[in-house]
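Palmitoyltransferase (Astyanax mexicanus), 428 aa
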Amino acid sequence: MKKKTKKALEQDDPLCCCEYVDRHGGRSHMAACCCDCEDLDDACDRWMKREPQKPDSLSRVSAVVSDRLRVPWISGAKQVELSLIPPLILLPVLLHIAALHYLLGIVVLTALPVIVLWYYYFTHRKKGRTLFFLSLALFSLFYMYYLFLTEVVPQGDISYLQVGVVTIGVALTITALIHTKRGPGYVRPHPSDTHSTVTYHTPPPDIDSTYHNGSRHQVVLTNHMSPPEQEAESGADPGGSLQKDTVKKNWCPVCRVVKPLRAGHCRICGVCVLRLDHHCVWINSCVGQANHRSFLLTLLLFLSTSVYGINLVLRSVCPTQSILTALFYCPDVYSQYSSALCFTCAWYSSIVTGGLLHLLVLQLINVSYNVTEREARIALREKTGRSLYWGFVIDTGVYSRGFRGNWTEFLTMSAALETPTIKPADLV
Ligand SMILES: [Zn+2]
Ligand SMILES: [Zn+2]
């Protein structure tokens, strides 16, 4: 209904770059951002009179603010996601405070990861989408690069070649990230199947045809009706009870598809993803069959660039010490604000690099055992996998074909589902 109103509005009289259709479907202008704010007026009024606030007043005010936070755009002002903004302000402010004194540095660089982790668990529990982490990741990368160019390079210890290597590293990381963001590979109903009353099925794990004789095929079930509805329609079939159980187990009531083997439903994105690994808040997207390789490549490029950049910065601000010693002991670095800021940024980058290195190692181990993050979590919960090296490795043993076979499969797997070998009609 709202969409119709918006379309009708745009067709009757196109929006100028500063106009937009607000959340109530009315035409509004960016200049009127402080007008007609009944929710905010009401909240202020109650606060002044010391009356209790309405239970939803805070969420209504925040909805109004986020609806009016816009930037001019050709076809009408675009809404800016509120969660994008805190990292843009907090990161430079906190890093500049941390550079004032080493004690402030310790406090800020300890508090920052704690706050980010707390916010991660807070949003993860609510299964809400937020651009905070993507904004923090991207802004950290650009801000570190900006400080490298404006604070480290002018000190004269960095050659043009080294600046070029860092620049290429940043550019390649962004390119790999853009590729990763193109999508994890979704389970979509096939157009020809959506009008069918017949259901496709995925093979049960014990008769897993995906790996039968080394040949690989996957099957997607799509239908308008859920398995219980189909059961009621088709009547009882004692021979197909195993298939029906599998279908029921793999049926996604949200996407209304039967998930292929290893696919999973992401509750944050609200879609089923092929060979779902995990939902990564740092890229605000799922990691699945289509983008898992580019995700690992992004991590690898980022880590290489970051380690190289930290190395250059520490060599510049603390030339008398070895790199590892310089990170922990760099005399007189706080005597100059510029070198203190570079040192603080080297520490911030080291913390981020350490976290991502841990993630990369876990990912490489998982690929070596042919286990996805989701499968490892399920195996841990249901106690069906082998826990090795103090729980660092979870081996489900279901899909593993040896180290070489697993890596070959990972590096050669197609981005989308392979052509199903069983047609829906075969199951009529
Ligand atoms: Zn789903
Ligand atoms: Zn997701």
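Residues 266, 268-269, 279, 286 surround zinc ion (ligand 2) (CB under 6 Å). Residues 194-224, 419-428 have pLDDT under 50 and may be disordered. ok done for today
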